[in-house]
Amino acid sequence: MTQDFVVQVIYQGVMTLLLVSMPVVGVGLVVGLVISIFQAVTQIQEQTLTFVPKVIAVLFMLAFTSPWMISIVVDFTTSLWSNIPAMVR
């Protein structure tokens, strides 16, 4: 197992993590931005106004994209398991 191979596996793991988490984080970011603009315009500074819609949006997005996320993670895990003979050499 060479250093290049280890770097490639770590790179693939980080890219898989970013790819899987990006839709949920993006929705949380967009919903938070919209609510912040709404609070700035109306001068309503209620804490639950920012928390509840973000949680609902993130949970909805997580439920909507979970089959895709699971398939990406399973593909990555399968490729890791299939590369074990190459890792041992």
Features of the shown structure:
89 residues, single chain
Overview in brief:
With 89 residues, the chain is an all-alpha fold. 91% of the residues lie in helices and 0% in strands.
Write the element-wise H/E pattern from the N-terminal end onward. HHH
Largest sheet: none
| C-alpha end-to-end distance | 6 Å
| Separate helix tally | 3
**Which class best fits the helix and strand makeup?**
mainly alpha
Query: Which of globular, elongated, flat, extended, rod-shaped describes the shape?
Result: elongated
What number of domains? 1
- Assess the beta-strand content as a share of residues: under 5%
The number of strands is 0
Gyration radius from CA atoms, angstroms = 19 Å
Low-confidence stretches: none
Helix content: over 70%
Mean pLDDT: 91
Walk me through what this model shows.
With 89 residues, the chain is an all-alpha fold. It has one domain (16-84). It contains 3 helices and no strands. It has helices spanning 3-42, 47-82, 84-88. Helix 1 packs antiparallel against helix 2 (47-82). It is elongated, with a radius of gyration of 19 Å.
